[in-house]
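pipeline/complex-builder :: batch 7 item 3
reading input block
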Amino acid sequence: MIAPSQRTVLDHDVHTLRVGSCVVHRIADMDRVKWPATAMFRALSGEALTQAAARTPTGMVDVAAGALLLSFNSYIVETPDAVVLVDAGIGNDKVRPDRPVWHQRNARFLEALAALGYPAERIDIVVNSHLHADHVGWNTVLVKDAWVPTFANARYITPKGELDYWSKLYETQGVETLHGAYADSVAPLLAHGKLETVETPHEIVPGLRLEPAPGHAPGMAVVRLAAGDTEILFLADVVHHPLQLSDPRITSNFCQDPAQANATRQRLLDDCVARGTIVAPYHFPTPVFGRFRRAGAGFEYLPL
Ligand SMILES: [Zn+2]
């Protein structure tokens, strides 16, 4: 029986899972943020929200407010070979006027990571599952008016399809690209020679793989950890919120290719059920480690 442990580190709610010779920590850059449900799922009726809430673990939907709770979960994956940060939150000081809660933040995420035992210099690899602004923020920090790589000793890895797509868009859209994140959180890595692109599937280190999961973003990938006979799948934005499980055709407003996102979601939900995979989604509020189970025409989420 695998059970996560929980503790609070500098006001950050950390959930830790040990599997075989690996340890996984979930630490959120932003935790349990209330979002209007229709700002995430345009077509969701009040009735559908009520029904979904009934099939979602307690505390993940606020039906009266018509809101969802969302987190932005980074994961530290420590294997015998490397310390890997899977997805990199929103970051500090980023100028995001069209996303007020992300705008010019002053959060203590790096301090909390250090207090957990992972000062920035201990991170060997940073994986960006995709390059949306809420997954790349801590790639860089502002030092004397310049954006520099936060994790000085790390290799940064992202799927080639992601960089190809967004770098091309940047040529025409400029600083608007990705709410500004391309310019302040991706381009500086390129300037420092820090960003590696890989074709998926790709083995990051033994036991840890990037696998293609396109749709939400053109080249998005998920990360699969195999430790002994246990697998953990870091789901990125394949599923944004547990309420999508009751009807996996519910697609977020932020998915670029909804049909492809739906196909990827359905494929991975089926696969996770068939393999008994433990899932670690990026945007689910806690508890974040769980499994999917079939329920009616859809699925449900069972936290560990
Ligand atoms: Zn996201």
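note: The longest strand covers residues 22-36.
queue -> next item
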